[in-house]
Amino acid sequence: KKNVLVIGAGGVAQVVAHKCAQNNDVFGDIHIASRTAEKCRQIVASVHEKKSLKGPGVIEAHELDAMDVEATKALIQKAGSRIVINVGSPFVNMTVLSACIATGAAYLDTAIHEDPAKVCESAPWYANYEWKRREECAKAGVTAILGAGFDPGVVNAYARLAVDDYFDTVDSIDIIDINAGSHGRYFATNFDPEINFREFTGRVMTWQDREWKINKMFEVRKDWDLPVVGKSPSYLTGHDEIHSLSQHLDVPTIRFWMGFGDHYINVFTVLNSLGLLSEQPVTTAEGLEVVPLKVVKAVLPDPSSLAPGYTGKTCIGDLVKGTKDGKSREVFIYNVADHKEAYEEVGSQGISYTAGVPAVAAAMLIASGEWDAKKMVNVEELPPRPFLDLLGRIGLPTRVKEGESDQPFA
Ligand code: NDP
């Protein structure tokens, strides 16, 4: 029995808990641990309510400060967990990894580690923290899969699949992430506002002609015409997976494009220009010291509260250009997910769904041995087909578009 331990109790953890429960014939017992035990208990209640638990085994809630390595080790041991799915805040990655290395449990996460004191982590992202610990993992024989959400995660597997199976040479990979959904609120972020804004307040770094290129956020716009979601504006954005893919695949240009509407950009620009997205404390006339970003977070809707009314779809994929058999080729490998369907199945919106389901698929492949690498790896270092096949079976089917042809991945 693997007795999986889930760290965090946010939107993504909610999806992970339900998907683990639906597949607990693979996992055995499921433990959910977060700073606020009540949130874990609510997830447990929702799993029982939706009757997600399929096989024998229990699901239990725990209170844990995952910044505390000793406490995390003790919980892994008490729960007898052999796989830890870290979907807590990115601030806890390194401490959870330490606890996994010490106990021999497999580790996986969906985002790079971040230092709360920094405005935003800059490239080369994985080299800042994670890759410094590769030898430690290899020495301990511990499997650590980095960035196993959708982006990073599934898009890395799409990139590897394209390089291996669809092309002789690849010139460029454009990862495109469009959320064409609507939450009906004036302004809200789809996940933790602090983490969300950090992504866009720094410089935009992308890999172009085998070099890092620097742009400003919202400087480079590109409009796509994508399956299901249609015409969608997007902006060049820095993202974790550009770094690992640039190191692992022989592809000269790798870019990431995030979809934004004008309204989001306007509100973001006002907040940012006024200094309201700053982590630096300011003192009010009354002598009160406040962190502007924390105040903005406190007044914005809680991302998990958006789920019940969320409608529309997401389309995330890799547009890959290169050559095959001496001819130029262009392929779009992608998934379309539906916010409402996600909510009905697991009680979270589509963004959390697309991040959580891949983390569970990766955990299932660790359990089966197919992805039990016994060292630290990024998703593109692992065989993509078992992952994409499994994702198709548990809720995130892949499609491949080439010219007029648009087929399910097989
Ligand atoms: P939330 O902010 O909703 O949840 C984070 C959870 O972590 C909260 O339950 C929080 O607890 C918990 N937490 C924070 N600090 C600690 C601590 N010290 N000890 C224990 N628990 C702690 O985030 P999401 O669910 O939206 O996202 C989870 C992760 O997934 C993030 O890392 C995010 O970046 C990543 N993500 C990845 C995507 C991908 O495609 N790769 C897409 C979307 C998200 P509390 O509530 O008590 O504060």
Describe this structure in words.
The protein has 410 residues and is α/β, with parallel strands linked by helices. It folds into two domains: 186 residues, Rossmann fold, CATH 3.40.50.720; 193 residues, Dihydrodipicolinate Reductase, domain 2 (2-Layer Sandwich). The strands form four sheets. An eight-stranded mixed β-sheet has the order 10-11-12-7-15-16-18-19. A seven-stranded parallel β-sheet has the order 3-2-1-4-5-6-17, with helices on both faces. α4 crosses α5. The mean pLDDT is 95. The protein binds NADPH dihydro-nicotinamide-adenine-dinucleotide phosphate. NADPH dihydro-nicotinamide-adenine-dinucleotide phosphate binds next to α1 and α14.
